[in-house]
Design a protein that fits this description.
alpha/beta; Rossmann fold; five-stranded parallel beta sheet; three-stranded mixed beta sheet; 16 helices; 10 strands
């Protein structure tokens, strides 16, 4: 009886092994075909660049469709095999990684994946601790990122692509930094590119790298080289309206396909990147009309955008995000965040500091500029709080273990020792 059972199990094992081998061969063949397709596409691009259009046409309309049909055939075979129950995967996903880490650490898989899910569900709450007064912008961005992370968006495209519009100093860059820290646990994951440096036609080469034989080939592109080294990143394209149309055409491919071929012929993958473009177009409409009629302001800005950008470019952006002017309450909130950073720095010197509401309000008022928004706030904090405080610390007025109370009275900021 045991022998019969053993024979039956051996038969089942042979069937499973044959199935495993079949799946393995199909996946291997699929991967090789995809590599071949990628190589043919690169060869086509090189042929077009060098002016060998006959060879480029031969590849584009002959070999490439042939290999694409082969890939479709393998994929359908693989799909049929998987209907009977898959034994192998084409790619390793986060659950596979979590299972391996789970074996090492004895932390249940569900617990680790739950941490990521919980983090995404609390995204707005986390980001609003840092970005003040832009709740609508934070909500729009958070929803788009959750769509991507839950698998509802195209996996080949970037995690998200956003167009941030609004006056200077209202939180566009700060939200970009907050997203880099939230998604990739490091603010240094922000790749910032000033698009005013890409106003000329030839600047495309600076962005993606010069072709072989040209000056700067070894350096690589400003965008492609950084993403090649750091694929998990937030890409901030500042003042996008200043970029040359040819530069925008290059970015169109990134928004559409999530990939770009650089000057060295490498395919750079943007599917793990978040793309943010900022613009001051129509800022005057936001400043003048936002609190009277925000729908009218948005309509006017969209009209101005259509004059500058092609419809196919605007249509590939996930969300148009409008940043409103900051209120007095928002400014006080920003001051509070900045003063918390100061408090943390003083902890190293064993000094405790407390600020009155009137002191916060005064700094918010004096640090706000209608043209530059909240940007001068840091300078106001340095001038009215950090500078006099540093003098008092050096004079020994506030030694270690001191408690300092900062107030605003008699039209000036005051510093007192608190018992």
């Amino acid at each position: 009886e045991i022998d019969e059972e053993l024979k039956e199990l051996e038969k089942q094992a042979d069937v499973m092994k044959a199935k495993w081998q079949r799946e393995r061969d199909l996946i291997k063949s699929l991967q090789e075909s995809k590599r071949e397709l990628e190589s043919l596409k690169l060869e086509t691009e090189r042929a077009e660049r060098s002016g060998n259009f006959n060879y480029a046409a031969e590849l584009k309309y002959g070999k490439i469709p042939e290999i694409e049909n082969k890939i479709k055939g393998i994929q359908s075979e693989l799909e049929e095999e998987r209907k009977k129950g898959a034994l192998l995967k084409e790619e390793v996903d986060e659950e596979d990684v979590a299972e391996v880490v789970s074996l090492w650490t004895n932390i249940p898989v569900s617990k680790m994946l739950e941490g990521e899910r919980k983090k995404l569900l609390q995204m707005e709450e986390r980001i609003k601790q840092r970005v003040v007064g832009q709740d609508e912008a934070v909500n729009l961005v958070s929803n788009a990122i959750r769509r991507s992370r839950s698998g509802l968006s195209d996996p080949n495209r970037p995690i998200g692509s956003f167009f941030f519009m609004g006056p200077t100093g209202v939180g566009k860059t700060e939200l970009s930094k907050a997203l880099a820290e939230f998604l990739f646990d490091d603010e240094k994951s922000l790749i910032r590119i000033d698009m005013s440096e890409y106003m000329e036609k030839h600047s495309v080469a600076r962005l993606i790298g010069a072709p072989p034989g040209y000056v700067g080939f070894e350096e690589g592109g400003q965008l492609t080289e950084k993403v090649h080294r750091q694929p998990y990143s937030v890409i901030l394209l500042d003042e996008i309206e200043k970029a040359h149309p040819d530069v925008l055409n290059v970015l169109l491919q990134v928004l559409d396909d999530g990939r770009l071929t650089d000057g060295k012929g490498r395919t750079i993958n943007f599917s793990e990147s978040l793309i943010i473009m900022t613009s001051n177009i129509g800022s005057n409409w936001i400043q003048e009309y936002w609190f009277k009629d925000d729908a009218f302001a948005k309509q006017k800005i969209e009209e101005e955008l259509k004059k500058v950008f092609k419809p196919e470019f605007l249509n590939r952006i996930d969300e148009m995000v409008f940043f409103k002017p900051l209120s007095e309450k928002d400014l006080v909130g920003i001051v509070e965040i900045q003063l918390k950073y100061l408090s943390k720095r003083l902890e190293d010197r064993e000094i405790e500091i407390e600020f009155s509401d009137s002191a916060k309000k005064y700094v918010a008022e004096i640090g706000y500029d209608p043209v530059f928004g909240a940007r001068p706030l840091k300078r106001a904090i340095q001038r009215y709080i950090e500078n006099p405080l540093s003098v008092k610390i050096l004079e020994g007025i506030f030694p270690p273990n001191s408690k300092v109370y900062v107030d605003f009275k008699n039209n000036q900021i005051t510093f007192d020792l608190k018992e």
